């Protein structure tokens, strides 16, 4: 992973110093809350319902074991013993005292971490997929360019007060696992005929109350122009994006208002002015950064491991876990292992305790190369595990309650923190997640259902990415009462689509039943191994809707 | 009392005797009083015989395209750009363009909601004077120029990105004084 040099270190240290001063000026009243707000947001500090929350950046989801230990320490010393991994590959601490934030940031800076620009109307954490650099189907490792963009966007003076937040994701695998299409800028990295690196640049995606997938503005952009091209996009957006209405301020609205062609022309015009200047990337810089991502010392191991095979045959629980929670690796004899942070009703999705973090750090050191990834599905990943170690790793993960074999299944619920923490929430999303996990806890049933993503957001802001869940649940409030609207047919990845609303919203206690009816409709109509989302695409939402509301009608009549 | 800070060798200094008067409506322009005018008024100056253009400056609103000043940027002693709110970042891009694309070499002034914690950013984008919001203390605002000010990207004042400025990847003990 990327190693900070003296410049990187000096910057994060200076930033702590600066924010410490800003906090003390806030505390003694020199800064009004209005003036302080953007400063604290750009240092990751939110005011939530009951306390301050600190969001720490995990650039493109990559952590060293020591960094994870630092996070564990923060969870234990400054929070209530746990942290929450978010859908943007960051970690959030929910119970923080403002006065302690500078000390926490100091701990982070001492371990080459920061919380810079994890919030606010600026370029946020650059994301990519959790298996970057190790996935079997990867074309090019996207991490060097992600790191280069991280640096470029950090404290870039022209672009810290954009009309709205700005999210960039980069991916380079056949099945886009970074949800690049729902980002303000989505970048797809691929190689041209003679091996040169190209980027497809897509702009204007976003979830929130106007969900939309981004559109291509540029094909085959040579990688050297990455920063100038992003600069051109940001300048056009900074100057012309709407600032009069928060809900119309994302770049997607600008792209739509101009039309993608006109927007692309505007960007190209701007880019022509700057493309060949000093901001062009150099090979030296690319290789300097890429060197840090070069492959660790993999052992030469056989693709087939006898012991591993034997355990698969002997222990069906292990076999199911391997099937669900591991991912094919570039190097033979290795896999990537996904640690489920969703054991069911016992812990909210994405919550990991300090003890668990320390143990995972141990496992990463012992079995891997001391590296951990955070997936945007809120799970953790050990990227480099030898097949021969899988069985003993699995046993240890079971003890840690991190081995639930439900990755990619219904109970691998993605949920935002909702009304339990978030002050923007209309509804509490976590109890809905818990009810669903409780209702469908039969593993055989879950495996029979197969790949199925379920996403829950507590309000229109869509932090739980409900639009791109195969089943999406959105909390809405009517006359102060909580209701949940269900969409189906959303998907992320190459075949991205936005879900469609099936009908009137449900009360919280009706949600598991409604899900149950959706699932039985699917099981009735599915052809062979067709996944849920394919069945929805083939049949449309009609049969699902009929089933869900017909039965609901019956219930209501019976009850009368 | 005016609240103007200027830059001397990159550092902030209080300009007690700042000469500029900001004008946003019709006024009688005299030769002895240098003003910062709306563009259309400035353009009318020579024709109407009321004053000499070259001693007066121009201000732009955040919606204005700085390209309009391209042809006259050599004649203007000062351009002022507005921050209607310190959270409105349009003037950063305007400033950058005036410096890097439209050849403006005169004084570039930030006006409006201009506060201590954004001054270093403004300096990067090419601003050279700063009309601090009236209710704020100038000597406090001056601290906004102190402290570490490294950026990775390029800016109007730092035309090359960090990777072209330094041979990176070396574990220097600490950055030199100059870099601080
Ligand atoms: S979706 Fe709404 S409730 Fe959930 S975290 Fe985002 S803002 Fe808060």
TrEMBL record, chain A:
Record SUPFAM superfamilies: Nitrite and sulphite reductase 4Fe-4S domain-like, Nitrite/Sulfite reductase N-terminal domain-like
Domain Nitrite/sulphite reductase 4Fe-4S: 119-273, 412-554
The Nitrite/Sulfite reductase ferredoxin-like domain, residue ranges: 48-110, 345-399
Keywords: 4Fe-4S, Heme, Iron, Iron-sulfur, Metal-binding, Oxidoreductase
GO molecular function, one term: 4 iron, 4 sulfur cluster binding
InterPro entries: NIR_SIR_4Fe-4S, NiRdtase/SiRdtase_haem-b_fer, Nit/Sulf_reduc_fer-like_dom_sf, NO2/SO3_Rdtase_4Fe4S_dom, NO2/SO3_Rdtase_4Fe4S_sf
Iron as UniProt keyword: yes
Family: Belongs to the nitrite and sulfite reductase 4Fe-4S domain family.
Entry protein name: Nitrite/sulfite reductase
Source organism (scientific name): Marinobacter salinexigens
Automatic annotation (TrEMBL), chain B:
Xref: InterPro entries: UCP030820
Protein name stated in the entry: DUF934 domain-containing protein
Organism from which the protein derives: Marinobacter salinexigens
Lineage of the organism: Bacteria, Pseudomonadati, Pseudomonadota, Gammaproteobacteria, Pseudomonadales
